[in-house]
Amino acid sequence: MAEAMSSTRNGPLCPICNETLKVPRTLTCLHTFCQHCLSKYIQDSDCSLVGKPSFNCPVCCRPTYPPAAESKQPKEWASLFPQKTALLVLLGEDKAKVDFFVILVRLKNIQL
């Protein structure tokens, strides 16, 4: 289940650097990170370069498959994920709303 993001007056915080998100990228598990932080995490991770490219989410450890990563180097994978969606911005910091949304997405098998 996704955790509610921490935030400051300036907006949500990246769980890696604990600073306001810069160029936010959202993984399929709905956790969001700064593009730079995610890129560094991926490069430092033991990501799979054989078979389907993947790495584990830094928060929930769910296997994550970057979209269209087969022709890209791991340092480029973070840029392949979508920027934080407007819907998640609207959900904000309300953990109940975020949890409900995550459950709904998973039940309906919706691709974001």
From TrEMBL:
The keyword Ion transport does not apply. Keywords: Metal-binding, Zinc, Zinc-finger. Coiled coil: none annotated. Gene3D superfamilies: Zinc/RING finger domain, C3HC4 (zinc finger). Residues 14-60 form the RING-type domain. It comes from the Eukaryota. GO terms for molecular function: zinc ion binding. InterPro entries: TRIM45/56/19-like (IPR047153), Znf_C3HC4_RING-type (IPR018957), Znf_RING (IPR001841), Znf_RING/FYVE/PHD (IPR013083), Znf_RING_CS (IPR017907). The keyword DNA damage does not apply. PANTHER family: BONUS, ISOFORM C-RELATED (PTHR25462), MEIOTIC P26, ISOFORM F (PTHR25462:SF296). This is RING-type domain-containing protein.
